[in-house]
Amino acid sequence: MDHPIKRDHSRFRKIVKGKIRDNLRKYVSNGEMPSPKGDGTFKIPMPQIDTPRFKFGDRQQGGMGQGEGEQGDPVDGQPGEGEGEEGEAGNTEGNKELEVELSLDELAAILGEELELPNIEPKGKKSLESTTDRYTSIGTSGPDSLKHFKRSYREALKRQLATGSYDFDNPVIIPHKHDMRYRSADSKIEFENAAVVIYMMDVSGSMGDEQKEIVRTESFWINLWLKSQYKDIEIRYIIHDATAKEVDEETFFRTRESGGTLISSAFKLCREIMKADYNSSEWNIYPFHFSDGDNWSTDDTKLCLEILDKDIIPESNVFCYGQVESRYGSGQFYKDLHSKYGEKNDAVTLSKIKNKEAILDSIKDFLGKGK
Amino acid sequence: MNRTKPIDGELLRLKEEIRQYAVDYGLVFDPVIFEVCDYDTINILAAQGGFPARYPHWRFGMEYDQLSKGYAYGLQKIYEMVINTNPCYAYLLNANHLVDQKIVMAHVYGHADFFKNNFWFKHSNKNMMDVMANHGTKIRRYMDRYGQDKVEDFIDNVLSLENLLDINVLFETQEVRDSRREANRQAIAEMGSEHSESDERSQALRSFMKSKLNPNREAKKNLSPDEEEQLQEGVTTENSSPRDIMRFILENAPLKEWEADILAILREEAYYFLPQRLTKIMNEGWASYWHSKIMTKKVLKASEIIDFADHHAGVMAMSKQNINPYKIGIELFRDIEYRWDTGKYGKEYQECTNMAAKQSWDLKLGGGREKIFEVRKTHNDITFIDEFFTEEFCERQQLFTYKYNPRTGRYEIDTRDFEDIKSKLLSQLTNFGQPLIEIETGNFSNRGELLLKHIHQGVDLDMSFAAETMKNVYALWKRPINLLTVQEEVETTYVFDGKELKPLS
Fold first, then answer.
1. Residue B245 is part of which domain span?
2. How many Cβ pairs within 8 Å bridge chains A and B?
3. Does the pTM exceed 0.80?
4. What number of helices (H) and strands (E) belong to chain B?
5. Per-residue pLDDT tens over the stretch B254-283
6. CA B411/CA A56 separation, integer angstroms
């Protein structure tokens, strides 16, 4: 049986998850994204899970330290950090802010629960087939590097006992060649489903920092959800003003161009990428486009719709358009798409994102169809 | 399930050797039982305040979570743990080097001596291992009966009061306790078959029975309005201290039996840990003084000296953000020993104006060792600092205070002035670093509301925490909670009426 503290621990985890769910809206709209760590988990700052008590306000209180320094020199870090290395439990007062770690799946599950997101049905039988080797069994031959010492020893011991060559006073075991055991692989065929998300964003002058921040936050949570749904996921980024180019993530959120907007340029590039790299019978494709709704001309919008209809929508799971409200944007593109595809189109999802508070609802718009 | 095992072989031999040195140096302690365990176990024990069995509560899980992470990332490692019981239990980490085990053993004997001799530990319950386990059983039983969520929520509420303790309660003498026990026994006899989870070893029941006895609750029904009013006024703090807030709630809040019992349990545990909070600097300083002394004078082999120095220095590391109690404690004990050896104290020394003479002052009194033994007996952190923290010491230790600079958004060194530092240090230690909160009345505005008074000593309360706290107190008291405090130099009364916190108009 496990130590009872494991129950306390899982209780704590449960409380934490509940807390995160309750505060999800706040996290999302504050643009506070959990910071990913190397091992696939996410760190989430967690204020006030500890028991509330009467305590002094920190700033006014200040503190004391030891060491060199003149008056006015900064004291690195915050009070409460670097608490003594050695501590007797039960009497250290921690001001530490709690940070909890959640795995991607746990975090996605919270998002899914809160937004009541349906699981995605990956596109039918066209999934990828792959074989993976798992070293789960034991064989009688193999390379030395996979030698299983314990098993080999046991075989040798068995043999020596059976043949009576085992000396109790001098228990030396000498393995023969046929005693050797090796780890060996079992091959398994796994069906993988792969997905690609293609983000397109208008970076023309009218898209300000706030708009980009919204896109950034939104794409984080969308990625999180899709990552939890697909085993393998690729993400591509396209920025455009009057021309489009593919960029990396960093550039995607940083770039700010001036000049006009030709949405079709992005759609063209998207089409090329899809043709070149992603066969829709094998890939689940998610093109996302974010803009403030301005397009250069109605002709271009026409071209856009044509590309969507002919090349993008048929190949994609769902095409998503998010219109981020900005002071300069007219919002025309949304109207155009809306008049063509309407509210309840399975292959096209449209969403207006008014401000940061609306991010969560918009995520639900995009992912709520389970496609 | 045995997660710890007794020491044997070389460790057992070492223990005997070190124990003998400790005895020879004059340390006096209850028997110490050392056990070895792995890091996971020591994390569990540490999360539970050193005890192998506690009541179920998520915060132990939280502590454990953080300790395990700290260990996994190599940020922190618990070397030693010792609990104040008789016999003392101390745990050694099985992965530590032998030299570490020696340090820990010597260190633990220092603690054991402190636990046994320091005045503030005089009345602590040395049977706490059993008591804690019994508390666990009782609370588990309540959870079975009333539901885990319900009981845990109640515990959460009570824990909000856990830091509001009256240190004078530690000096309740045996007679006071005996007379209370006698009263309780009578009460039990009178109540006849009244039953609850009874348990002779638990103090908690006794205080609980006491609360049953309280006339305010029992006799109220058949009183004339006049008398009732009198009693209402009696709901102040007549027989308990205004700072013993848990006790006041216990005796006066409308609690169910099981709630009262749990509150009493938690109160007892809080008071058990209190002396350690009052003597952190002294306790660690004393233990460090002795591990250093015993190791360097007796136990260390030449080959171990580097490792010892490294680890000792790690423990004594100075930090710019915090005072390291180990460091200040050991240095202060050493300073006292030195001053009393040389006679650098008293009127004559203080008034000597010849700096050279002061520097080389040595009356060869040799009373240092005796003095520090006396100090460890009678002082707590506050009096320890107040009496022995000198200007020379302050300078030598390179102490400073820092504060938040709103202009730069940083914490900056404020001053190295001796008086300022000392008064800051003392104020930080006052009431073991917790705000002083007193019960003013349990019948505020004649409406049965609770009025708490924050004794403001220069630092405001964090009001967002206060709001949450009052919410939890409200859950216990079930009537509005008022708090008289000072915010930004204005005296204000806040009220939490069950919905929100607002200033009382």
1. 128-278
2. 238
3. no
4. 22, 11
5. 999 999 999 999 999 999 999 999 999 999
6. 17
